[in-house]
Amino acid sequence: MDTVKRGEPLLAVLERAGMPRDEATRALLASDAIDARKIRAGTTVTSTISADSGAAEVVLQLAIDRLVRFTRTASATWAGKEERLPWSTDTVVVGGTVTSTLTAAIASGAEAFPSNVRSEVAYALADILEYRVDLSRDLRTGDSIKVLIERQRASNGAVRAGEVIAARLTIDGRPVETMRFAQGTKVAYYDGDGKSMRAAFLRAPLAFRRISSVFGLRRHPILGTVRAHQGMDYAAPRGTPVRALGDGTVIFAGWKGGYGRVLEIRHRNGFVTRYGHLNGFASGIRRGTSVSIARTVAYVGTTGLSTAPHLHFEVLVGGKHRDPRVALRNVTGEPLAAGLRSTFIQLKTRLFSRLDATPTPAKVAGVAVANPNGD
Ligand SMILES: [Zn+2]
Q1: What does the pLDDT look like over 12-47, one tens digit per residue?
Q2: Which end of the chain has fewer CB within 10 Å, C or N?
Q3: CATH of the domain spanning 88-199+332-357, picked from 3.10.450.350, 3.30.530.20, 1.10.3720.10, 3.30.1450.10
């Protein structure tokens, strides 16, 4: 097996795989369906060329479901064509009791998805829930997750995750339900009460997929209690994008003592969000800038009273510090139109009975929940 090097012409790759140069040239000219520009560095090349039998094949694996196959025909000329593997879709239920990370909880459906796909499932779920739950902080040992999700399989054994269809998380005894619902061509996620999963505020200033890689880093990045701690800390690599928690206006972008480089955004209803220890601000971010929800406004750093890269995050309401979990608890999305309710409830009954019919898988061994102290 070989791989395509950076900037390497396809002709050179084929030659190295054992095709005579003139044959490779002709094969490429005859196969105008093959776009050499799509052959990226790192593409694997497998070559089976036997001098005696005449059987010969060179395969470039473009993607998990796409390949280019060059074969030598009976007349000893080479020809290539691009092939797409068909995917078949079924639905599976994954999940379990949380003993460590979200991804580990999803591993309870271990036979359903390979480990690299499980983290994709976790990210997809976190994206759907990001206006309701801060999955990096809110999950605790003993909470549970069940996800009804599409699974796609190709004939070569490749598996990938499709759309999340429905999910139920039980966090601290409270169920959080979500399901996919289509209105004509518009598909969106709703909670169990038929309210949109989108809302005026995100629940976390960092995207789950950006910080789950530091799940292991559980020590508080500030040694001891340097000062009264009135916010939440998110350990994350330097440069991790920081998102505006909601629509608003920048009221401060600069240096402020122990906070180091800090950003403050004023939102509606007297809400102010504060982001500290920043490495820097996103371009265009200054006092007076209007920002929309989820826009990248700054980058994680370790400026001010900080010993390691992390984001210090505060929510203030009417000038007073509030626990974001409490302050945002009742911020939910718009309800479905009344005319759609009966259709919604029928679908909900069907999807959640499917979810409930599958027994909760056994506990998964693991380390501890990320940031268990919620400090
Ligand atoms: Zn802090």
Answers
A1: 888 888 888 888 888 887 776 677 777 788 888 888
A2: N
A3: 3.10.450.350
**Has domain 208-327 been given CATH number 2.40.50.1070?**
no
pTM: 0.75
Distance 137 CA to ligand 1 centre (A): 14
Give yes or no on whether 2-84 and 88-199+332-357 have one common fold: yes
Which pLDDT score is estimated for 372? Answer: 29
Stronger pLDDT, 229 or 75, i.e. the higher one: 75
Find the 138 Cα to ligand 1 centroid distance in Å.
17
CA 269 to ligand 1 center in whole angstroms: 24
- Between the CA of 103 and the centroid of ligand 1 the distance, in Å, is 26
Give the closest residue to 195 by CA, choosing from 351, 354, 349, 337.
337
Q: How far is the CA of 258 from the centre of ligand 1 (A)?
A: 10
For the segment 104-122, what is each residue's pLDDT rounded down to a tens digit? 766 655 567 887 788 888 8
User: How far, in Å, from the CA of 312 to the mean position of ligand 1?
Assistant: 4
Class of domain 2-84: alpha beta
Residue ranges per structural domain of the chain = 2-84, 88-199+332-357, 208-327
CA of 166 to the centre of ligand 1 (A): 35
Query: Given pLDDT bands bounded at 50, 70 and 90, which one contains residue 139?
Result: confident
Separation of 331 CA from ligand 1 center, angstroms? Answer: 24
